[in-house]
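step=encode ok
step=design start
structure_in=
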């Protein structure tokens, strides 16, 4: 969770709805108000948060995926810690607000915060100061919070899962990210921009789109939003011949108009296994940038925790799902702090 400078992945704003959103971003960026970003998973709220920060004059930008860490890790991340104050914390480490002093802290999937961490966050924001775990003195902090969620926080408040006071604090300005299917004028410019970024990361020449490929991109309804578009383009780059991406390289499903793959010029889609692996490869590519230096740690924790939860905390079933022994699973869950060693 280190500070990051604004990325080059700026959103594309062409259509009327997107232009209105851009105007709202510019207005919000000129203030110090906290901002809440709403939108389905995959619509590009992280890109929007970075763009909002880039439009401001604030200092560092620090992003935290609240759904990727347990409550203990998030609590330590919020406050930071002195040397030796936490397990494995041999060096003093600043918390989010110290690291992003005078900048922006982006809390992605903020609804995933536990009530205890929400209360800690609210206290820090109200007091304007934070004290490290094991520390004696509080440090003044000044940050803008940009929070993102794919859930209805008002409903979460009603159900007792989110603090009403915290919702009021973070939603001073609320912006809704429209679905990609509602931004048809943005699809091709956005695809070209993403293609340039992905080609650069893969260290290869930037291809163009054939006319059929462009039509396929426009015809698709994008239920997975921007995240799906990124995965489709990454997959196409791995398949496409030099110079051009064809409709068949996109491997999109048959359109709603009922046209067959033969009529659209598309090849038979990849098998479900191939498509899933390509999506995983694209996801790991994005995670490698976001979790530089600790990608294995994040993926390992997510993998073992997901299997354990999916199997209802039944260790034998979780081990069978992962293809490892129960002893290996139990050892990793203990090391990751997911279960007590006595269980």
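sequence_out=
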């Amino acid at each position: 969770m280190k500070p990051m400078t604004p990325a080059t992945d700026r959103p594309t704003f062409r259509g009327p709805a997107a232009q209105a959103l851009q105007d709202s971003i510019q207005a919000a960026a000129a203030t110090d108000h906290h901002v809440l970003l709403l939108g389905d998973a995959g619509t590009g709220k992280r890109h929007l948060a970075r763009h909002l920060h880039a439009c401001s004059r604030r200092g560092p930008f620090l992003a935290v995926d609240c759904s990727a860490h347990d409550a203990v890790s998030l609590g330590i991340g919020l406050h930071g810690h002195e040397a030796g104050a936490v397990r494995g914390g041999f060096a003093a480490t600043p918390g989010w607000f110290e690291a992003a002093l005078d900048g922006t802290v982006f809390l992605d999937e903020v609804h995933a915060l536990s009530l205890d961490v929400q209360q800690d966050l609210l206290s820090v924001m109200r007091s304007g100061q934070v004290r490290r775990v094991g520390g004696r003195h509080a440090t003044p902090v000044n940050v803008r919070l940009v929070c993102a969620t794919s859930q209805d926080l008002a409903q979460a408040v009603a159900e007792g899962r989110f603090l009403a006071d915290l919702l009021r604090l973070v939603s001073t300005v609320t912006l809704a990210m429209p679905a990609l299917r509602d931004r048809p004028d943005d699809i091709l410019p956005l695809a070209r921009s993403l293609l340039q970024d992905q080609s650069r990361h893969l260290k290869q020449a930037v291809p163009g789109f054939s006319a059929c490929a462009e039509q396929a991109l426009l015809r698709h309804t994008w239920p997975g939003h921007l995240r799906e578009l990124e995965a489709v383009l990454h997959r196409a780059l791995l398949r496409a011949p030099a110079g051009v991406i064809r409709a068949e390289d996109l491997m999109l499903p048959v359109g709603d108009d009922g046209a067959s793959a033969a009529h659209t010029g598309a090849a038979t889609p990849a098998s479900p296994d191939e498509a899933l692996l390509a999506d995983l490869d694209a996801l790991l590519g994005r995670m490698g940038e976001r979790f530089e230096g600790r990608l294995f740690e994040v993926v390992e924790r997510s993998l073992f925790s997901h299997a354990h939860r999916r199997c209802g905390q039944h260790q034998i079933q979780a081990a069978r799902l992962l293809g490892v022994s129960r002893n290996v699973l139990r050892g990793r869950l203990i090391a990751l702090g997911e279960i007590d060693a006595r269980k």
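step=design ok
step=annotate ok -> Residues 1-9, 256-270 have pLDDT under 50 and may be disordered.
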